[in-house]
Structures are given as structure tokens and as C-alpha cells.
Amino acid sequence: MWSFFSRDPVKDFPYEIGEPISFDSERTFWKLHKGKKKANGEEVTIFILDTKNSSPSEIEAAKAAVKRLKMLRHPSVLTFLDSVESDKAVYLATESVEPLGKYLERKENTQGDLSVAWGLFQVTRALSFLINDGNLRHNNVHIGSVFVNAAGEWKLASVEYVSGSDSSQVIGKVPSCLSQLDPPEVKTGSQGATKWSNDSWGLGILIWEVFNEPLHNIALLKNADKIPKTLVNVFKELTNQNPSSRPNPADVIARSRRPGGFYKNDLVDSLLFLEEIQIKEQTEKTRFFTGLPTVLDKFPEELCRHKILPQLINAFEFGNAGSSVLAPLFKLGKLLDEPEYQAKIVPCVVKLFTSTDRATRVRLLQQLEHFVDHLQPNTVNDKIFPNIVTGFMDTNPTVREQTVRAMLFLSPKLNYNNLNVELLKYFARLQIKDDQGGIRTNTTICLGKISCFLNPQTRRKVLIPAFTRVFQDVFPQAKIAGILALAATQQYYLLSEVASKILPALSTLTCDPDKTVRDNAFKTIKGFLGKLEKVSEDPSLKEKFEADVDAAASSAADAASSWAGWAVSALTSKFQRSQSSNAGLALIGQGGNPVRSKGRFPMGNQSSSSTSTTTSSIPSTPSVDKDVLQPTAEGQESATDYEDDWDNEDWGAIDGNGSSQSNVPSSNKASEFSSVNTGAANPSSRSTNTVSDGWDTWAIEETEEKDGWDGDFDVEPKNGISNSSDDFISNKSNANESEFLSSVLNTNKGPTSNQTSSEWGSTDSDGGSLAGRTTDPEKLEEMRKRREERKLHRQNELETKRSTRKGPMKLGSKKI
């Protein structure tokens, strides 16, 4: 009657029993099954003993195994999860594992496999724990008592016959074939000389079976041909007939961990370091994580994915591992499928972008290409982009440079506002105010590369002013970047814009002091002229040439296919590297900030060191990538030479190495650069030199005021960033910059008297046409007075802003 109301305990077992696992079961009475936890579907392994069809000794051994496994907790011992006993069966749930014999069947070469050394090390360590720390004896070590989990870690199990080290009584082993593996002294009925002699013998048997096959006759132990040479001596001592001569497992570890030992290799060293990372010094961590990526390729994939990667994540989150953990972390992240990557790696990435450590930010940006494909657009726009843009205003040039490069990978995922408004604000500021010529050049390059992702209306307003405004830069590579960017994005311009805006702007560079600038200007002009000649001969081609003006690239692949030949050769992977970047990176590691000048036209006399940063660094080999700019324009080609191959023409690449200096005698290099730099440092002398070319004085003065990037630039302060533009020197940019400003900044202000259009026939602030300006002396004098008043008013505003600035600088803040 009471049995009717009793509940079957198996129904409360929180695991589902799955299909059986096939393996050599002659040495055990357990049946193995796959299983899953009912609550979350976690995979487990279930050991089952059918009590109705088992002997009393087997049932007693199974219950003893459950009891012992509950008590033993060690990383190298099989992990106990749950158990249940009924009158029908005994159930034991453990972590998901498979028998070692089945695992080794998939191994082609166990001798050279690093994971085998790590597995034997784990078993030896587990035996050392039982004998020396737990004062216990295992009494049943062989290949059938070891299991392997998903991470490739070997776990010691089969604890049915564990006994105290001082006890000579051991439960009778079942099946009986296990007794064939007992040491000689046990077979004769004598007691071992040491508490570890039995388990040391079992360890020797395990080593032989790993490199050979399951042992059935102990006489075969004399054949050690397949055992690695670094392990032979230890193996012979473990299987010594004299029990007192067998070494303690702890001694086996100590000897094998010495240089040249079997347990001394990169895998064991790396895994042991990760296990002890909490007690390691910061310098040790940095050295370890820096060298780890070079050895990861030699490690088994399952160990990297399930063992090393979780350890790296824990080291990052809780171990103060620093930025050096990023390279191995992202390298191993490639082994994960998409759901796992989103769950494990992306949260780390988001957290890293909030860090204020410059070294972390730089290394993160350098690794961006390895994980950007796994970032969802919402994550990029809401969590990453607001943090990453602080790098545009950072005082360290390396941070700014890497931030610019990063936009190439993030642009396809940015929403309309972040891409067409916020990002262009920072690009505009870098293009005109950054003191590093390489960064200004890279900004132009990056804008050209991401132009395919811009909104067509924004693209039409921004590209021409952005690329032509750099023609006023003193850095030759910045000019070349603007020239080649126009060539690479030629499909986005109306033919009327080519004739009225691009060609007149390019023509000014045909007299540039730098020969490489002149060569590229002539080549690009000929290309545009060839395009116009084609349309002049056949007007029906106009629609074809302007087909992409208002078209948006649907993907990065479509965008890449629309690039001119120059984009493929020059902008695919190479950017200009400023010489100061290397010094800036060194300062990052030291916690220092390089001193910055105010804008790209520095005021006053410059020392030789500062001059080399902005000018003489152009032709220097270490400052730029070697394979970036090699101009191909040689000889005098006509415009028609470029008609048939405009889009496929290789327009060179951007690099200081091999620039115009290669065509200029060494004696003229210094004078050429000094003349450029002098004009930048001394605005008055620069104006004087410019007037001598035949242009009216009013034209020079007008261009000084038509910058428009200073007073109207409106970037919201982030992390203490100051937006004031005091001490900034006008860059003598042309009228196109005003249109670029109004379209990029998109401020809520209405049109003012100082804002002018970028059209060639636009009117100035006084209402007169630039093309038909009056020559009346009285009107000219009146206009000059108004300009002087505006300048004075602007200077007063800048002085007020500068006086209100205070407080410490933070990461992301840029000293103006």
C-alpha cells in the first residue's frame, strides 16, 4: 500500500538521459549516456548502473564512487553534478566528457601532440593531490579511469576503490580483469613500501597505454619504443619492480617541468600561467600576452576555444590584464560562432571602448578589423561611436591617427546622423586644425574611402570643398591626397562641377613648388579633360558619366567596385603615417602627452625639431609606408591619352617616400621645404609672395576671411573638450570651404553676412559679385574697414573663450 504512494526519485532527477556513448567497457560496470540539464539544456554525461542486473560488489563499488566523487573537488578530477539512487539503478551526472581511449583514437600523432603532455600533467597533478594533500590512494589508474572534456582537459575518475594511504584493505575490484594491472607486490600480498607506490605504478601503465594500446599483459611494459624520449626515464622508474624506487607524482612533475622535460612546453607553460594570473606581476602579464599570439597556432583548437579563451576573458574582466590581452583575445575569437561571439567577446569590446587608458584605446583600434564584422549596427551607434569619437580630439597624435583609420571599418555600420553629421564635423576640424601633416592627409584619404557610404546629397555638398581645401596645406602629401581623392571619386561629380570647380582648383597646383604635386595635378587634370572631351563629342555620354552622382552604394563590395584605379592601389590598405606617431606611441606607454602646435600653419619661428615634424619628415623613409606613393606620371601626355582608361588608370598612392624629392637635387630639398614652412609660419610673408603672382590684393584678403571653419564650427564638448578656436591662424582657403562648412556642420543658425557660397560666381558679404567686383577706391576702402571690424570682433570673442577655459585635460580632450 505504501509503495503506491511512494514517489520514484528518478523523476526528480534534473537531467534528461540521452543516447549511450560507445566505448571499451570491459574495465568498468558503468554505462555512459549523453544527457542535458532540464533547466537550461546544458550538456552533461550520465553514468548509469542497472542494479537489477548487477552483482552486490558492483552496486557497493558504484555507491562508493558516488560518495567519493562528491567529496573530491579538484580541477583535474571529474566534476560531480548530481546523483540519485533507486531500487532500479544508480545515476551519476558529471560534466560532459568522453572516455580517453575514444579521444585518443582521433589523434594521429600522440607523441608530438602538446595536448597529450598537458593531459598527462593533469592526471599526475590529480594523483599528487590525492596522495600528498588528501592522504588518499586511488588504486585504479589506467586509461579507462581518465575522461576528457570539451576543452581537451583530462579528468581523473573511477574513484570506486579510493582508500586511505595507511589502509591496506581495498574493495575487491570488478570486473576481475582490473586485477591484472595491479603492481607485483599487490599480487604477492605484500604491502607497498610507500603510500604512492600503487598509484605511481598505475601512472606508468597509463603512460604506456596512451602511446600504445590498452594493456593486457604487464610483461609488455618492458617495450618503451613508442614512448617519447623525454618521458622514457620517468616511465621506467614508475614501472620499477621495486616499489620503493617509484617516484612520488609530485617529483615526477618537478622533474618533467625542468627544461627539456616532457611537461615543459609552450602549452603547459601558457595554461599554468593563466591559472596563476591573479598572483602575477603586471610586467609578467604584459610579456605573456604579448608573446601568446605567436604560439596559439600550435595549440589544439578545442583547448584554445574552451580553455584559453575563457581564461583570457576572465583575465581581462577580473585580472587587470590591460590592453596587451586584446591581440590573443581577438585571435581566438575567430574560433567562435556568431552567437558565442556576441555573448562572450562583444561585451568585452564595448567595455574596452569606455576605458580612458590610451594604450588600450590604440591597441583596440589597431585590432578593429578583426572584430568589426561581428559588431551589430545598434551596438556601434549607441555604445561604441560615442566613445570612439573622443579620440579625434585627443592630445596624443597616435590616438587621433588610429581613430581616423578606424572610421574606415565603422562607416558602413553608422547611421545617418553619426556618419553624415557627427563624423564629418570631426573630419572637418582635423583637416584644418591638426598640427600633424600625416593626420590631415589620412583624414582626406579616409573621407575619400567612405564617400560611397555618405548620403548622396551630403556627398555632393562635401566632397569638392573638402578635397580642394587641402590644396592650401603646406604638407605636400595632404595636397596629393586631395588630388587623388578627386580622381578616385570622379563618378560622384556633375560635369558642370568638374568644369567650374574642380579644374580651376587643380590648375592652381600646376605651379606648386613640389614636383610630385604638379605631376599628379597635371595627370588628374588630363583625366577630367578627357572626360569632358568625350561628352563634348558625344553628349549622350553625359547621362552615363553622371549616373552615380546620386547613387548610394548598397554594400562595401559595391563601393569598392566603383573606385578608380588609384583607390585600389593607394587607399585599400595604406594610410600616411606621420613621423610623430611613433614618438606619440612611445609617450602613450609612458603616460606622456606630446606638445601640439596650433593648427597646420604654425606661428612664429620653429625649431629644427618642430620643422622636421611638419616638413622634412615628408621624404624620410621611417615616417611613411614604403609602398604607398610612387607617382607614375612621366613624360608629357595629352588629355586624350586618358580618355579610354580613366576609371582603370592607376593613380599612384600616397606616401612621402619617393615623392617629389626623388626628382629634386638634394641641395634644393632644404630650400624647397623651408620656403613652404616660412610661408606657413609667417602669414604676412606668405601673403606678399602670393600677391606677386598677379592676383588682386582684395582676392587675397577675401580668401583669408572665407575660411568659415573657426567661428561657425560647433562640436559638442566631450570629456572636457574645449571648442574654442583662439590662436588659430587663417589658412587662406578658397571660397569653397564656406559651403563645406555649412553642409558639414549643419548648424541651426540662419545665414549670416559672413557666410558665402562656394560657387565661382557667388556674391560676397557686401553683396558684390566676386567675378565682377568694383574697382571704386571708396568702396574698396569701406569694404576693407568692415573686414577689419569683423576681424577685431572675432579676436575679442576668441580671447573671451580662451579666458574662460580651465580644468584638467582628459582622454579625448584636445588642446586648442
From TrEMBL:
Q: Which domain of life is it from?
A: Eukaryota
> Which residue ranges have biased composition labelled Low complexity?
607-623
Biased composition regions of type Basic residues, renumbered to the chain: 803-816
| Bias type Acidic residues, positions | 640-652, 699-714
The record's region (Disordered) falls at 586-816
User: Could you tell me what this protein is called?
Assistant: N-terminal kinase-like protein
User: What residue spans carry the Polar residues bias annotation?
Assistant: 657-692, 720-766
What positions does the domain Protein kinase occupy? Answer: 18-263
**Family classification:** Belongs to the protein kinase superfamily.
Species this protein is from:
Orchesella dallaii
Q: What is the lineage of its organism?
A: Eukaryota, Metazoa, Ecdysozoa, Arthropoda, Hexapoda
Per UniProt, the ranges with Basic and acidic residues bias are 775-802
Q: Which PROSITE patterns match?
A: PROTEIN_KINASE_DOM
Q: Which InterPro entries match?
A: ARM-like (IPR011989), ARM-type_fold (IPR016024), CIK-Related_Protein (IPR051177), Kinase-like_dom_sf (IPR011009), Prot_kinase_dom (IPR000719), Ser-Thr/Tyr_kinase_cat_dom (IPR001245)
Please give the function described in this protein's UniProt entry.
Answer: Regulates COPI-mediated retrograde protein traffic at the interface between the Golgi apparatus and the endoplasmic reticulum. Involved in the maintenance of the Golgi apparatus morphology.
